[in-house]
Specification:
Elements: E1 5-6, H1 20-27, E2 30-34, E3 40-44, H2 47-55, E4 59-60, H3 92-103, H4 108-132, E5 136-137, H5 138-143, H6 145-155, H7 162-173, H8 180-203, H9 209-215, H10 226-257, H11 259-267, H12 272-282, E6 290-294, E7 298-300, E8 303-305, E9 310-313, H13 315-318, H14 353-370, E10 375-376, E11 385-386, E12 393-394, E13 398-400
Parallel strand pairs: 1-2, 3-9
Antiparallel strand pairs: 2-3, 4-6, 5-13, 6-9, 7-8, 10-13, 11-12
Pfam family, one: p450
Family: Belongs to the cytochrome P450 family.
Cofactor: heme
Length: about 400
């Protein structure tokens, strides 16, 4: 195994993968890496290995174990291994029960019903950007506000509080930018906000996921504890906007980087669905990857992993594995099937993937229709990544039309 590679591995260009990924997949698919905390972990970069580990219940999210690697120097790894993350059941029947209760709100059917309001919201945000004049920042004008509005709607939370959510989620998802005191303070404020919000929902329920979870009663009635509902609300708010907000910017940047891709979608909008999947697969800047803690010893790719190993699954590296995808390094807007791992795999695959897909498709539909002349206002080489986030993104996406 290669020794002491620092992780995350930096990349020269915002939209391109680090060259080390291909080397690791070819020569060292189970590699020793050093995390921002200084602790050691094992990095997986091959499609088959990542898929195997994500589906194996022995690899858990219990990153609070005494021998688990700390992800960041603040010691509690933000969202991944805070005590709050442990409140949602990690596996087995309890986890499936939680997913069933919450997942009812994220079905493809429910998302289809949300499409018209998403499209109307996207149109309004694009109109505002156009009014302000070119060049505009697509991330700030559309990528960030749209998912926040949508997830606030689903949770029944006032959208005018979104700036506060932005700060809280950035603090919870950032592995390097904030110190422990700042992270603890943000978690405390966020926790208090959600407690107050749930008390208001209990008094006056609405048509939203939190009201429904409260109405299901406690564990005796087959529902969740109040604390689990609260943490679910916090988790959905963070996961439901930060990831998609960043992906909207990256998706548009990838499609405009080689403008023949944009032209192709203008000529054939039926490709929107597969184009969204392909940008998810090609995203070289998806963030930290998924860390897992191994409860029992096992083998991956013929390499023995002792009990207590912390593994990082790089879905982004796995999504470019030539053994899983033909011409894996090339963007094929019509690629099908496309079994990428952008949303994970197995029992912990992303609960909100139907929501994310719907938002990305709607954004693309509305942009192609309203701004067919859209182009990047800077060369793609000048785009800058946001560093330190557990979720990867671009600092700005300057565009003109």
């Amino acid at each position: 195994m290669k020794q002491d590679l620092s992780y995350p591995i930096p990349s020269e260009a915002a939209l391109e993968p680090p060259t080390e990924w291909a080397e690791l997949r070819g020569e060292c698919p189970v590699a020793h890496v050093k995390l921002p905390s200084g602790d050691q972990a094992t990095l997986l970069t091959r499609y088959a290995d990542v898929k195997q580990v994500l589906a194996d219940p022995r690899f858990t999210r219990l990153l609070t174990a005494p021998d688990a690697a700390r992800l960041s120097a603040t010691d509690d790894g933000g969202l991944f291994n805070s005590e709050m993350a442990q409140i949602i059941p990690d596996g087995g029947e309890e986890h499936l029960h939680w997913r069933r209760l919450v997942g009812r709100w994220f079905t493809a059917k429910r998302m289809a019903a949300l499409r018209p309001s998403m499209a109307a919201m996207a149109e309004e945000l694009i109109d505002d950007m156009v009014k302000r004049g070119a060049p505009g920042d697509l991330r700030a004008a559309l990528g960030f506000p749209l998912p926040v509005y949508v997830i606030c709607d689903i949770l029944g939370v006032p959208a005018e509080d979104r700036e506060r959510f932005a700060y809280w989620s950035d603090t919870l998802l950032n592995l390097t930018r904030y110190d422990k005191a700042e992270i603890d303070a943000a978690q405390g404020e966020f926790f208090q906000y959600m407690s107050d919000h749930l008390a208001a929902k209990r008094a006056e329920p609405g048509d939203d996921v939190l009201s429904e979870l409260l109405a299901a009663g406690g564990p005796e009635e087959g529902g969740l504890t109040d604390l689990q509902v609260l943490v679910t609300g916090m988790g959905l708010l963070v996961a439901g906007h930060e990831t998609t907000a960043n992906m909207i910017g990256k998706m548009v940047a990838m499609l405009l980087d080689d403008r023949t891709r944009w032209e192709r979608l203008l000529a054939d909008p039926s490709l929107i669905r597969t184009a969204v999947e392909e940008t998810l697969r090609m995203d070289a800047n998806s963030g930290f990857g998924l860390p897992r803690y191994l409860r029992d010893e096992t083998e991956v790719s013929g390499v023995h992993l002792p009990k207590g190993t912390t593994v990082v699954c790089s879905m982004a590296a796995a999504n470019r594995d030539e053994s899983a995808f033909d011409a894996a390094g090339e963007m094929d807007l019509g690629r099908t099937p496309n079994p990428h791992l952008a949303f994970g795999a197995g029992a912990h695959s992303c609960l909100g993937q139907a929501l994310a897909r719907t938002e990305l498709q709607v954004v693309l539909e509305v942009l192609l229709r309203k701004l067919p002349s859209l182009e990047l206002a800077v060369p793609a080489a000048e785009l800058e990544r946001v560093e330190g986030l557990a979720v990867g993104g671009l600092r700005t996406v300057p565009v003109r039309w």
